[in-house]
Amino acid sequence: MDYDILFEPYKIGDVKLKNRVVMAPMNMVYSDADGYNSEQWLAWYAARAKGGFGLIITDATVVNPHTWRGSDHLNTHLFTDERYGRRLGEMADNIHAFGAKVFIQLSPGFGRQGHASAAAPHLAAGAPSPIPMRIDLRNLNKGWEKQLKRLAPKLVKDLGGLDTIRAMNDAQYADLEKVLELVLLNEDPSLLKVWKGEVPRELSVDEIVFLEEKMAEMSYEALRYGFDGVELHSPHGYLIHEFLSSRSNKRTDAYGGSMENRARFLLNIIRKIRARIGPERVLGARFAGDELMPEGVTHEEMKQFVAMAAREGLTYISISQGCYENPAAFEPDGEGEMLKYAPGFKEASGLPVMTPTFKTPRAAAKALSDGVTDLVMLGRQAIADPFWPAKVKAGRVQDIVKCTRCNNCLMNLFEHKWLRCSVNPTAGFERYIPELWRVNAPAVKGKVEKFMAKAEGLPLI
């Protein structure tokens, strides 16, 4: 099959991409304990830039300086002031040196999908309403089932297997939850905390406005530090999404109730960012195509929200689906499963769309050729093989290391471990590979060699 379409240049806003293959944003928890950029993060992104991705979208980088941001349990990047900006700017420069463009994904917080900070354990994460998150075990797919069997094989066996759980009606499942909560409380409290979220604190209007303005401030700063564009972290159950969803937003003020009110937080953020960065710079947003939960945001509602957001000045739309409460949708087993949302979002917004969940170049090229999406995104597949684009371009498709959709990477995150990959032994260890060090980046290697040549032969003193 001809894969040339994957490597066509593409212009998005004021940014020219060398191809149409994008690395999706993923939280790999490689920041240091205080949320600063790390040597591992530099090498991680260097591998994907060196591997041929035309665009890299960073992990969700949180701009909220307060402990109620709810993100500290995932060890995310922070970007609250210039101390973080200098380190993030180094990351942007490094990605450019290895040949890719980079958009930073900015987040105001995790809301009810977050937890209290270790620095303030008695201050709950801030959210639209005090409604806790709880994963429905009936929504676990094959990848998650593998990980649950790895972590708690006896428990899964005693429950009769996940097929038994999936077949339960609501009343049966409610009874199971009561028993399961007692079991986990005694046997694995850390797993209980993942399954049953903490009750969040309802944000005040002053706090909401503060977050809107902070998102605008740090978007401007991100561009000043060298990022090519900004993406709003507004998908699959995190804070902005929580305002959009009547499942998680029960407010009765100007930020709750009608669709216009539930969109207010998102739209105010876009307006305030555009006022700071001007009309030309890239500002995208990622949205869930459907929350896929009772009372959650439907695709029809999301198309209306996307249309509202586009009118305020977005440059592109990035697609996701589901939420923590439906992890099978959040990280599906198959390939191209989110393409079904692309036509609706394209029509509603009139903007280019990026679609994830690709593994094979055949499926990615077909999606572009059919005009269903404008750019293809690789998430877990980019963990499994950072050199996917370069291998495809070189005609070495047979050498691609395929993602098995085992979700080991994601379960590591919820186990509070450094993320690893079951098929890529270098994942998490990129910082030890000399080819990924800045001095070996194509854009600087020749300059470094020339500089060092002038010092060759000097005596030690």
Structural write-up:
The chain is α/β, with parallel strands linked by helices. The chain folds into two domains: 4-117 and 201-445, Alpha-Beta Barrel (TIM Barrel); 137-195, no CATH class. The protein is 39% helix and 11% strand. The protein has 19 helices and twelve strands. It has helices at residues 39-50, 82-97, 142-151, 153-158, 162-166, 170-187, 189-195, 205-224, 239-244, 259-262, 264-277, 299-311, 327-330, 342-349, 361-369, 380-384, 388-393, 408-414, 445-453; strands spanning 10-12, 15-17, 21-23, 55-62, 101-107, 126-127, 201-202, 229-233, 282-288, 316-320, 353-355, 375-378. It has an eight-stranded parallel β-barrel with strand order 3-4-5-8-9-10-11-12, surrounded by seven helices. A two-stranded antiparallel ribbon has the order 1-2. Strands 6-7 form a two-stranded parallel ribbon. Helix 12 (299-311) links the parallel strand 9 and strand 10 (316-320). Helix 1 runs parallel beside helix 2 (82-97). The model has no long low-confidence stretch (mean pLDDT 94).
